[in-house]
Amino acid sequence: MQGIIRTIRDGSGFDILLLGLALVYLVAFSAFPIIYNIIMSLQTVDMFTITSFKRPFVGLENYSTIFAQPIAATVLWNTVQFVVLSIVFQLSIGFGLALFFQQDFPGATYLRGLFLAGWIMPALVVGAIWKWLFAGDFGVINYVLTALGLTDDRIFWLSDPNVALYAVIIANIWLGIPFNMILLSVGLASIPRDVYEAAELDGAGPLERFRSITLPLMRAQLGAVISLGVIFTLQQFDLIAALTQGGPADSSNVAQYWSWQLSFQTYEISLGSAVSVLMILFVIIVAAAYVRSTRHEHSY
Amino acid sequence: MFQIEIDNLNKHYGGFHALRDVNISIKQGSFVALVGPSGCGKSTLLRTLAGLEKTSSGDVRIAGQSVIGKPPRERDVAMVFQSYALYPHMDVEHNMNYSMRLKRRPKDEIAERTRTAAETLGLSRLLDRLPKALSGGQRQRVAMGRAIVRNPKVFLFDEPLSNLDAALRVHMRSEIRKLHERLNATSVYVTHDQVEAMTMADHVVVMRAGIIEQQGSPLELYDRPANKFVAGFIGSPAMNFLPATAADNGALVLDSDSVRIGFNRDIAAGRQVWIGMRPEHLSLKPGVNDMTIGATVTGIESTGSMTFVVLAVASQPVVLAHAGRPEACKGDQVRLHIALDNLHFFDRETELAA
């Protein structure tokens, strides 16, 4: 006992203790759920077998069942649109704002701080507010659109199957902009001023400086923001729950919400697991790309 | 023909007056050093020439054309930054020819000029390296290469050697000077190191608090400093100053010691002055036309070829420099011989040369 206490106090025991705590945490709260989830996706799990580990093994049958579902194609296409459109607009608007606030003007720091507000709010609250904004008969968005003469009829944002997905995407873009802006602002601030000055003396105008200095030097940050954006977008659940619940008629349903519906609404738990395993695989690929992109960071 | 003319240039940052009525004329092909302590405005002046800072009033002409309000890229000046400011994502070759690629010069011209510049600076074997794979000295040369491929009207240097170690700095000093002579370009060089300014420049501009204290050739500044600041700033070790008061019979009396110094300049009796003495004009051995005062040796610093003797003259520190080995020991009471022909006098109130 004395010996153990001594190694913890002065020797390698302390290192092992710290490592061990982290390892136990990871195994208990990350590795175990993921592996358990993978196992469930290979078994038949329903309300009767959920409490027991011994369940019939069915191989990849759950996966083929999922793809055979009539809404699988819709959900897949919706998820692709949800992710791609969210990222494209979050990134371009966030980058634009980051560049804008990089200019030195009075109040720039405070205004930038204000943009964080959206990030601080819970997505469920954001969803509730956007639900009012989007409301077909009393929503502000319809009011503005008709007042400006952009539309003649009211758009039923959340109940029209043709636009419901885009309504969710618009709200998600708004929610993701602050994160993009802050991360990209930090990246922009780390580019030394004199590199721009040297480029200016070398004859580069503003556009040329953006193209040949800013973009290549921001490569690592852009890679990080895109990868994290994909991951966050695939995690986005609250907003969909608050706005459309995937409806109407699955027109705004996306993979993560479908997985939840399968597991916790229709109790087809093994199918829900299979969907989430597919998403995990995709996220791992994105995460690998993210790790690779951080290797391109420049030192000045 | 002057390549650069600066007329009554002023620069304010809010309430701070960074440059006050600066007037400098720089001949085509000359090497000008702007020197002074930190915060004296020398870098601001250089950045104003480059177009990186706006002027508040006054005029700047490059090759006869006013450049006020013109962006840096229309001024045809190249600058070597203290941090080098290399493009971290471009290799040496692309760092050097960025300006020509922007101008869409023909490919073979770009290649040819990059090759020549790289050869001049000994960078030929490093063309495909990224800046992070280069040593400090190599980065410095790339920064110079980036400037010379452009063949600009004016080269601006902002303390380009301050991040190098001492030996390399001395080496690069003469390299830059040689390069300047070969290219016959007009160069403006900012440094806080007066030795750099003295050894490299044809024309030295000494600045303090946004004002030009004096400008002229290096030896002019050394031999005839216009005021006490310039006298103390130029020369290493620095000039010694002892307070004295003029007596009525054309002599000066040291305040500390009632030693009288025979003096043949017209200074009104009772006027208080600083007597300035260069360390090399002091000696422990008697010479021709000198005067003698008592002093105590408080320290000896020997570099081998030179010896610096730190003395106390009535508690005022005075440094003496002579070639060779020490001739006294710490604690010695010595006779200090001062060569009268090389004394400087500054008014104690105005600090101007008397």
UniProtKB/TrEMBL annotation, chain A:
All copies of domain ABC transmembrane type-1, residue ranges: 76-290
Domain of life of the source: Bacteria
Location in or out of the cell: Cell membrane
One Pfam family, short name: BPD_transp_1
Annotated Gene Ontology cellular component terms: plasma membrane
Main location: membrane
Membrane topology (UniProt): Multi-pass membrane protein
TM region(s), chain numbering: 16-39, 80-101, 113-133, 163-184, 217-237, 269-291
Keyword match Transport: yes
Family of the protein in this entry: Belongs to the binding-protein-dependent transport system permease family.
UniProt keywords, alphabetically: Cell membrane, Membrane, Transmembrane, Transmembrane helix, Transport
Classification via InterPro entries: MetI-like (IPR000515), MetI-like_sf (IPR035906)
Gene Ontology annotations of biological process type: transmembrane transport
Protein name stated in the entry: Sugar ABC transporter permease
